[in-house]
Protein: DNA-binding response regulator
Amino acid sequence: MLLDSSLMLRALAVDDEPPSLEELLYLLQADPRVKSVEGASDATEALRRINRALECGPDGEDAIDVIFLDIQMPGLDGLDMARLLAGLAKPPLVVFVTAHEGFAVQAFDLKAVDYVLKPVRRERLAEAVRRAAELKEAAPLIPVHEPDPDHIPVELGGVTRFVAVEDITHVEAQGDYARLHTEQGSHLVRIPLSTLEERWRSRGFVRIHRRHLVALGHISELRLDAGTVSVLVGPVELQVSRRHARELRELLMRRTAS
Structure:
């Protein structure tokens, strides 16, 4: 199936290690959702390229949709660079590609689309590309309002559908967006997870993790394993953070008792 070129990604890969950069460029060039990709060996070179993209505008030949960004680099590191980008009116999407697990919380606080660990696996990078491509496609989504409290509008390929809130099993944060999961599939909406948490609290949705909101009625199992708590929602197992574990157990016990 031919992809609409307007929905394909124009990418920039930034890594100070030549072998890593070459591999990343090779994998991105092989992905059919990537229209073009360039490489930069440090933040200075990358910022020059980004400035050129800003000068040409979002529809220009030099535009950049997404940056695949290493974290530990000499001079300005990847997190600092992402903070600079966040100050732009329309910043490019950012996917961190790093050998270090310890920066994930900071990365997602900076609205990262994804956090890919090295050595980079083709399948894992493809998932990051998919998320970035969907966010680009979702850019003109419906504004944040919900005239019908029982349904939420989602847009796919120019067609607006109305998803019943009761069919949503869980919600996953993706920067300023949220992915609504149902048994039939998932939908991306431009609404922060915190907004949905407040809006749907009275409908039985509870926060179990900084990135997940779950419908209590769709939880089939609560699992405890060596101090780790998780829940089973359909076929999906989701981790419960320590700060939310006690509240979740109390809510489930109350629900069972009633």
